Amino acid sequence: MNYFSFYKGGRALYCLIFLGFILAFSSSLAGTKRHFRFMPQQSQVQGTITDGSGPLPGVTIAIKNKVNSTAISDYNGQYSITASPSDTLIVSFIGFKTSYIPINGRKIVDVKLLYDTTTLQEVRVNAGYYSVKESERTGSIARITSKDIETQPVTNVLATMQGRMAGVSITQTTGVPGGGFDIKIRGQNSLRADANAPLYVIDGVPYSSDPVGHGQTTTLFPALTSPINGINPDQIESIEVLKDADATSIYGSRGANGVVLITTKKGKSGKTTFIVNASTGAGSVTKFVKLMDTAQYLSMRRQAYANDGITSYPASAYDINGKWDQNRYTDWQKELLGGTSVFTDIQGTVSGGSQNTNFLLSGNYHTETTVFPGEFLYKKGGSQFSLNHQSENQKFKIQFSTGYTIQDNDQPSSDLSTVAQTLAPNAPALYNGDGSLNWEGSTWQNPLRNLPSKFESKSYDLLANTVLSYEILPKFLIKSSFGYSDLRHSETRISPSTIYDPKLNYNSSYSTLFLNNTSRNSWIVEPQLSWGTGLSAGELEILIGATFQRQSTDQLVQSGAGFPSNNLIYNLSSATTVRAVTDTETLYKYQAFFGRINYNYKERYIVNFTARRDGSSRFGTGNQFAFFGAGGAAWLFSKESFLKDVHWLSFGKLRTSYGTTGSDQIGDYKFLDTYSVSGVLYNGQTGLQPTGLYNENFAWETNRKFEAALETGFLQDRIFFTAAWYRNRSSNQLVGIPMASTTGFQSLLSNLDAEVENSGLEFTLRTVNLSQGPLQWISNLNISFSRNKLLSFPGLAGSTYSQRYRINEPLNIVLLYDYKGIDPNTGLYQFSDLNNDGKITAAGDKQIIYNLNPEYFGGFQNQLIYKGLKLDFLFQFVKQKNYNYPIGAAGQMYNQPEKLQASWQAPGDTSPYQIFTAGNNAAAVTAGSRFSESTAAISDASYIRLKNISLSYDLPLNGLKTKCRLFTQGQNLLTFTKYKDGDPEFISAGFLPPLKVITIGIQLTF
């Protein structure tokens, strides 16, 4: 075989000389001049784009003076581009200064971009049906991104927002895994506590936050199980909260309480990238109540009997009559709540694609134990897939995303916090010598007896969305969104006979089971048309669209009692008695037409109008449709000619908005006569019972919102300050109108001419303290002052709400007795006789108003970067009042705070706490009860908390394509407060407080 080589024997040189001769001769024959320029050999240039602390994906790399020569950095910040040795790279990315980097013959060119705060105004913010530049928005929108979320070791999406958004108040209600949070966006609009939740929209698909739990099964938490916990923070790219009318009115009847827009992560163009995160950590209770030890407790008990004139202790007073060891001491808070919760997380992501098609596939798994005794475990896993494609001419685009989450929660059916705080410190040991539960001769209820009484829940949550769009003409786009969600949730709570004292001889015939099965599925279709054009010296944008949605919810709650064996307790068919507690099927239909007109004149004067006509199946004929609309305006005064020489002012904008939104959070079929299965047999037949009365005048609640705001940037936006004032008024309130008892109903849900106002001030401040050199430091501060009050309520004095609300006062108030102090002669608590009738009564004297809403709240975040080291921490602060530990009539057989040692002992004492009683002094018991409902029961519960801290380090793996980041994260690590009775963050007392958590982990990118 002969091998021919083009280079062998100098053939290449001969061919090149011959080719040059032919070209030269041909040009002379043509009579034209040809100019030859030497073209340097091109080669692949590679490198990594960073911000000094980590890689930057999505950065655009182009070659100066050359078209069609761009590249995009991948998730590792790496890029590759074909260039000549003498070319210059142009590296640009929003939020950073554009860099011009000469190649100078190098094969590897790494680039560090510097922050440019002025370009942050060019970031496009998700406003729901459209996006808008940060500098040009007319509405109030708060935003956090995945960079803020990834630093937090949390599993609930609401936890990621705490302390980071002005006007958004979030409180954790329990520290038990799978527990919930309470959120209020600019206050409480509705008199009904369950009608103040915002609208959640995930990738364009509305996500119902209505509870899926039931009171018979969800006994562990202070509120029914919420589906919001199924949203996985690891999958989120950004969260936008729409607050004012301009931002929320396009959502019409569902925007009264604000809108939370969640955008999940999508793939980016570039080479395929793998990211793996793994972390583990531990959590514990933030703070315990300081309770009495055994000596202090027994002293209180003996004094209580002495005060009652009893010298011979009753047989039931086991703690002091000799039955229990009086030298024994157990710190029950540490024993029952002092365990360590262990966290484990693992997450993997693969993404990549070309300029026209990209993808992302991710999966995650989380496990978490509890601080309670026993083997309890919360598991949460999920996956996400995203695929985006556009045609070569970029006219047709398709976006598809789907996510699936599974939760499996295994917990005790009751919170042990209350028993841990009240149990006598000399109570018996939990276990006998053989490891069995100790009942100490039937003298107590062992707190561990309830551990076999388990709460178990499982959730399967699917969310999918597809968006198709086609650009018919330049800036003329037709688009449609198709969304589907499906949630399957099941709960069980068992009470086996083993929870009772064995001496009672209860067998499995006393065992009970409660089952809750809830399913909810929804589909939504939203066709849209958008058009943009130049008009005069401005830009006009028009959007019109429609919404068609259908949601069905089924819930079946059953109970079973009496089983042949506890091994069959989960088998409902084995129960002797089976009862249907609740069996409901509801169908919600919704349709709407919406539109938006935006005009931007000279990038200086902007007006924005949005409107929506809603139709809801939750209202009767004649009230099913309603119109909502808003207008917003902005003036970018920093672009005026008279300010062009004011160099220290880099940005200035005034904006305002006014409009209406509504609320249909009333449940389904409330305007109809409704019946439910009673579950009770009569002559062998199951009966029906009426549950609702017909009301054809049932109508929408309406919220009128007004806002004015100032946004300013100084020194190239190194200092950026915003101030906003708002006033929202919610009217046509849906409340329960009292009914005569002869009707069989306590109230009729109807519209009332009551009006609620929320007003306040919100401030944010961002400063770039250091940006040059290896050290970078950025600070963010937000603070909100809010005021809520009931403006009007016709007939309030004669209604069932007369002892709950007051005109011109907040909705979240409590009416209290006016505490005067201790009577030095009797040692009893004294209260003011406000109506001077000579006696203390709730109706006449329990009238002192205390506001439990926060006076102000906010957060202070700092981010410091030094080379590969990054420190991020957030302090959350809240100014508020809350209830103290409930002490009641101290001296009975439950423990008390240590501070009660300073109680009244003898006539003439001026102690802060009244005389002890074992329960035989009726006057002391009554006074103790009133004390817990008096001004003395509430104190300053303000706090400053190190809500989150994250420290990471990128290992310098020079020459390797793999990147390794080590990190540690903490949550709730430090709390500064004057509150004495445990953790100050709670809504309902008696539940596990938030946990302080610390984790360590590693991230690999390759």
Can you walk through the features of this model?
This protein has 1006 residues and is mostly beta strands. It contains 8 helices and 49 strands. The protein has a 22-stranded antiparallel beta barrel. A hairpin with an 8-residue loop joins strand 11 (168-172) and strand 12 (181-185). The longest helix has 20 residues, at 11-30. The chain is globular. Mean pLDDT is 90; it is low at 1-39.
Produce a short descriptive summary.
The chain is mainly beta.
Major sheet summary line? 22 strands, antiparallel, barrel
Gyration radius, in Å: 34 Å
Identify the overall geometry: globular
N- to C-terminal distance: 45 Å
**Alpha plus pi helix count:** 8
Structural class: mainly beta
Low-confidence stretches: 1-39
Beta-strand proportion: over 45%
Helix content: under 10%
The pLDDT mean sits at 90
Q: Can you count the beta strands?
A: 49
Which features would summarize this protein structure in a list?
1006 residues; 46% strand; 22-stranded antiparallel barrel; mainly beta; five-stranded mixed β-sheet; globular
Question: What secondary-structure arrangement, pairings included, does this model have?
Answer:
Elements: H1 11-30, E1 43-50, E2 60-63, E3 70-72, E4 78-83, E5 88-92, E6 99-102, E7 111-112, E8 124-126, E9 131-133, E10 141-145, H2 146-149, E11 168-172, E12 181-185, E13 199-202, E14 205-207, E15 236-242, H3 245-248, E16 259-264, E17 270-285, H4 294-307, H5 332-337, E18 341-353, E19 357-369, E20 377-390, E21 396-412, H6 417-422, E22 454-473, E23 476-495, E24 512-535, E25 538-561, E26 577-601, E27 605-616, E28 625-635, E29 649-663, E30 674-682, E31 685-692, E32 701-714, E33 719-731, E34 733-738, E35 747-752, E36 755-770, E37 775-792, E38 813-816, E39 819-822, E40 829-831, H7 842-845, E41 848-851, E42 856-866, E43 869-879, E44 881-883, H8 922-931, E45 938-940, E46 943-954, E47 963-971, E48 975-977, E49 995-1005
Parallel strand pairs: 1-7, 13-16
Antiparallel strand pairs: 1-4, 2-3, 2-5, 5-6, 8-9, 10-15, 11-12, 13-14, 15-16, 17-18, 17-49, 18-19, 19-20, 20-21, 21-22, 22-23, 23-24, 24-25, 25-26, 26-27, 27-28, 28-29, 29-32, 30-31, 32-33, 33-36, 34-35, 36-37, 37-42, 38-41, 39-40, 42-43, 43-46, 44-45, 46-47, 46-48, 47-49
